[in-house]
Every structure is written in C-alpha cells, then in structure tokens.
C-alpha cells in the first residue's frame, strides 16, 4: 500500500494518511502543482501555510535555511511527536507550501505509516488536516471519506488517531519563541527547555476575541460552550435552548440534564483533557449524523492538553458562556 501511495505522490496526487494527532492530506512538499491541489480540494485560503512532515531531524536542513540550536534540542526531546517548529524557509521549499511566507513549519509525526511514506517518497510531505476547510479535524479514516471522498486518490487507514488534537505550532524565529497554536505538547513541557515561551498568534487572538476569529473546527450543529458549569447560571440557558431546538447534544458529565421539550443525546464524558482531545472531533461528527441542532459542551481545565482542547472549543463555538 505504501508503494501505491508513493506512486500517487510522485505523479503529483494526494494521499490522506494517519498521524498521532489527526489525519493529514499529503502531497510532495517540493511539488508546487501538487501542493496547489491540496488548497483546491480542501477549499483552503491560499495564504494559510501547510506543515511539512519529515522522517527525522536530519531532514531539517533540507527545508530550513537556518536551524537554531533550540530546534535540535526540541526535536531530540519531542520528535517524533506533536510539535511543529517554524523556521526560516529554505529556497527549495516552494512558496505555495508556505502560503507565501519566508518561514516553514516542520514536524516529524509519530506514526509508522506516515514515517514509512515519507521515507519511501524521499521528499518531505506537506499536509494540512484532511478535512474540508472549517470542519472538525478527521481523527479516523471514515471522517476523511466523509469530507473528501471522490476528490483524492488514496486514504491510508491506520485506525483512530491516538491524540486527537493537532500539533503545537511553535515559532522559533521570534525571541522568546511564540506558540502560534496550542496542541499536543503543552507550554509546561516546553518551558524547561526554552525558558520563556509566549502564547501568541491565533491562540492569543482567539482568547481575546472569540467573535472575530475565522470559522474553524465547526460541525453543522451550532456549538454552545459552557466553560465552567454552574447550576444556577446555566439551568435557564438550557431551558431556553430546549425551547428552540428539537434535538440537542450534550457533551460532559451527566447531571440529569434536561432541556425542556428537546430530546437530549448525551455523550457522558468525564472532564479529562486526554479523553476530550481524543474523542471531541469524532463526537461532533456523530452528533451531526444524529441530526442534532445544538451541541452543548462542557469545558475542561485549561492545563496541559486542556489548553489545546479549550482553544478548539472556543473556535468551534458560536456562543461561550
Ligand atoms: O497535527 C498537525 O499539526 C496536523 C497533522 C496532519 O500533522 N496538521 C495540521 O495542519 O493541523 P493544518 O494545516 O490544519 O494546520 C497548520 C497550522 C495552521 O494554523 C497554519 O497557519 C500553521 O500551522 N502554519 C503552517 N506554516 C506556518 C508558518 N510558516 N508560520 C506560521 N504558522 C504556520
Ligand atoms: Mg486544520
């Protein structure tokens, strides 16, 4: 199957493949025509850069013009794994891949299938998450099919992904380094190696102005996020929601939740960040299939992986209470 996939990539085709975070939609990172197809197939804005996947830190020099000492240290500690490093772009990497930027984002995924594919191709693979732009990220091959069937050549099915939220994107071209997107590696894990780390970019913007960030991770149903449950405050809200929707999904602890006349599809999920990360995007898709109109989600503690989970929930939500 890897041979077939490599043949597809060599002729400029697209192959979806598993990583430890979410499924990626891969093309040869050094082939600009192939990379352009990724944007077309996903409906992704051309200025949103892609992550380049490598099979080891040895490939860093092939895609980055300069590799600071901190990059080697971080790669040694966290690769293969959910940490993406932003570095100065090597001229070999086409601007299509970097969305026109003079930087590249690179990571080594922790998945035997992904690594075998990159090694067999002999080139790094550019891959965004393998969903239609704006939809929940795919954590199983079925999710990729749901969004992209008929538009891509091949899907390598490696079963459900282990982590479930995307990698942490860390910009090493700023001082101190900046977390552009929280993910599988937490700021607490990075600090001992880097000293100061700033939370910036999209992550900070989403926190400051949840209403203005662009659409991301959204199921068809409207998402209402309850950051921290309080009986007195939230009971009236649930009743109001129940008065306008027939079917509601509730994701969180079962407290004998009722929503007036609405049918509640309860997904009982203890507020454990690991569990949430692993299951959240799949739950969004399942509730959509059940025809749910509103999904109410309880938040988790904003620590460790919980930081990434809350980032995704805030972006998915049209209402935060
Ligand atoms: O876990 C992951 O990171 C998954 C798997 C497939 O590896 N990939 C993924 O890709 O989530 P995508 O395209 O959905 O998200 C890539 C993120 C975007 O927020 C993008 O803006 C950022 O990385 N990014 C990519 N290149 C960048 C660059 N040169 N500078 C700043 N941000 C960059
Ligand atoms: Mg994505």
Question: Which helices and strands appear, and what pairs or packs with what?
Answer:
Layout: H1 2-10, E1 15-17, E2 24-28, H2 32-42, E3 51-53, H3 60-63, H4 69-78, E4 83-88, E5 103-107, H5 112-121, E6 125-126, H6 141-148, E7 154-155, E8 168-171, E9 178-181, H7 187-194, E10 198-199, H8 201-208, E11 222-226, H9 231-244, E12 247-252, E13 263-268, H10 273-289, E14 294-298, H11 305-316, E15 319-320
Parallel strand pairs: 1-7, 3-5, 4-8, 9-10, 11-14, 11-15, 12-13, 12-14
Antiparallel strand pairs: 1-2, 2-6, 3-6, 4-5, 8-9
Helix pairs in contact: 1-5, 10-11
This protein binds threonylcarbamoyladenylate and magnesium ion.
Task: Walk me through this protein's architecture.
This protein is α/β, with parallel strands linked by helices. It folds into two domains: 207 residues, DHBP synthase (Alpha-Beta Complex); 99 residues, Rossmann fold. The chain is built from eleven helices and 15 strands. A ten-stranded mixed sheet has the order 7-1-2-6-3-5-4-8-9-10, with helices on both faces. Strands 13-12-14-11-15 form a five-stranded parallel sheet, with helices on both faces. It is globular. About 2% of the residues have low confidence. Bound molecules: threonylcarbamoyladenylate (TXA) and magnesium ion. Magnesium ion (MG) binds next to loops.
């Amino acid at each position: 199957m890897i041979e077939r996939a490599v043949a597809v990539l060599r002729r400029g085709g697209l192959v979806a493949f598993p990583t430890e975070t979410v499924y990626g939609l891969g093309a040869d990172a050094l082939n600009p025509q192939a990379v352009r197809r990724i944007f077309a197939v996903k409906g992704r804005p051309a200025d949103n850069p892609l992550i380049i996947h490598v099979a080891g830190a040895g490939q860093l020099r092939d895609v980055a013009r300069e590799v600071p000492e901190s990059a080697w240290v971080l790669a040694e500690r966290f690769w293969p794994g959910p940490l993406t490093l932003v570095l100065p772009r090597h001229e070999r990497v086409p601007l299509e891949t970097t969305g026109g930027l003079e930087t590249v984002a690179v990571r080594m995924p922790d998945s035997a299938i992904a690594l075998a594919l990159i090694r067999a191709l002999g080139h790094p693979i550019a891959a965004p998450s393998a969903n239609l732009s704006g939809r929940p990220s795919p954590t199983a091959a079925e999710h990729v099919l749901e969004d992209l069937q008929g538009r891509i050549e091949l899907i390598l099915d490696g079963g459900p992904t282990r982590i479930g939220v995307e990698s942490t994107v860390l910009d090493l071209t700023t001082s101190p380094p900046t977390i552009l997107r929280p993910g599988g590696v937490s700021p607490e894990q990075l600090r001992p190696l880097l000293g100061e780390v700033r939370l910036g970019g999209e992550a900070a913007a989403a926190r400051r102005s949840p209403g203005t960030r662009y659409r991301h991770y959204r199921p068809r149903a409207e998402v209402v996020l309850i950051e921290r449950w309080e009986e007195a405050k939230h009971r009236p809200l649930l009743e109001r929601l129940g008065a306008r929707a027939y079917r509601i999904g509730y994701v969180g602890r079962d407290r004998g939740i009722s929503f007036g006349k609405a049918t509640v599809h309860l997904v009982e999920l203890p507020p454990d960040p690991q569990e949430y990360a692993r299951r959240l995007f799949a739950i969004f898709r399942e509730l959509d299939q059940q025809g749910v109109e509103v999904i109410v989600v309880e938040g988790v503690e904003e620590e460790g992986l919980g930081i990434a989970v809350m980032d995704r929930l805030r972006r998915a939500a049209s209402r935060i209470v």
